[in-house]
Amino acid sequence: MSKFRAFMNYSPVLRFLLVLLAACMGAALAETADRDKPMHIEADALRYDDIKRVSVFTGRVVLTKGSILIRGDVVEVRRDAQGYQYGWVTGSGSAPAFFRQKREGVDETIEGEGEAIEYDGRADVVKFSKGAQLRRLRGASLADEIVGALIVYDNLNGRFSVDGSQGGLSSVGKSGRVRAMLTPKPDDTLAAPASPDGPVTPGLRAAPALGGVPN
Prior knowledge:
This protein is an alpha+beta fold.
């Protein structure tokens, strides 16, 4: 009760700022929720190296970690000294590697696929390579879709980079160019009229690290 009385003695403006700061801190912590969840994996076979902290799962692998879902033919998982986990996923001849994760704080899900996927648990970054596809679902509806040879998705910042012909390899058409379908957020369409210079900025933002999709 003493802490509550002290809080109420602050000015209304100061109390508002303290509440706002607490809310912002809570949102920042929520962004890393998946990184703190245990990892569960099912597969046909497992090879584990305790010294290198590396596990290799093969055959119809299904990995879950919080809201994260990964499927592939081979999944290699490594844990560093700080406890962060890293994954390398490859698909089979009949199905590409698959990744899905819910975005924190919004009713949106990111999912993608490619012949190979790399997941960096420390940075919360996912790389899709060779015939890569990235989709953002708003609820159950498709909002954005990106196709290219290499897609790098930064979950913490909601940014992506796309290369249409990384290393000259692309299984997404002959041209090796990036294809994208981006839609504005519903509140953006209400808050701002369409600009004659271009569409409203979408929820996902293109990062400048790789070419293909302009900011």
